[in-house]
Predict the 3D structure of the following.
Amino acid sequence: MHILITDSGVGGLSVVAYAERFVRTHGLREPLRLTFANAAPANDYGYNSMPTREEKLATFDRFLRKMVVRFAPDSIYVACNTLSVLLPDTPYLANAPIPVNGIVETAAGLMLRALKADPRSVALIFATQTTIDTGTYPRLLGERGVEPSRIVSQACPGLADGISEDREGTRTQAEIRGWVGAALHKTEHNADKMQHAGTSVVACLACTHYGYRKDFFATAFEEAGIGAVVVNPNESAIQDIFGQQPEGPHHDAEVRFVTRYAIPNATVEALTYFLREISPRTVAAMQNLEYLPDLF
């Protein structure tokens, strides 16, 4: 079985790490190959930099078609919120020959379960500006019965890049504290009233980079005196990637990392630090990445 996992950068590499760890600890019925393909055209020009939605769709559509031809995966998992919200509108998906799923559906399902478990809770969605602008999460939650008054969206411009460049985390922690405060300010009740009413928060990290600093988000809510369930879809993506695949004798997964551009050293160092205990094999694949300028 060959699964291709992609992101518009390298945040989704954590999904590969969790998938590899799952196979190593549980096993699968058949051998597994995991290919992580970086869908960004260049280090300094990603999807959030593209001026129009049409350009984003055309670029991502071209990427998907090239990946299927070049790597012949059995399925694709889009471990990226920015790309997941584009996925339904790509011409490729209309006639995709293999299953293609995205992390937005994974995250929406996790949030819905948490919100139903506590009817007094509110959803705070932290994401890139592109993801927030689409309104996808409020729409998906609304379609499943969540009142709009229980949903707050908070864009965090620059946070993804900051996380991947700030291994020590000092700047990132301060930035996250600010975004959490801004999101709480948008709720119908301020933090004091929320505490008094016993209102809790379901905080969704709707950008794959944010999961690397889940602990910072949790701390920021604790400092505000707000009870929060911090949802990191990266950790739960394996349920959608493997589905009902039975456990089996195969405990090794081949991991490959392909990209159109060389990953900056600061990013490699930061991701090595974040992922080394989860999946050394994934870290090794990143450190020995395959630089393919003609990837797509």
Summary: The chain has 14 helices and ten strands. Residues 2-102+235-291 form a domain with the Rossmann fold fold (CATH 3.40.50.1860). The CA atoms of residues 65 and 92 lie 7 Å apart.
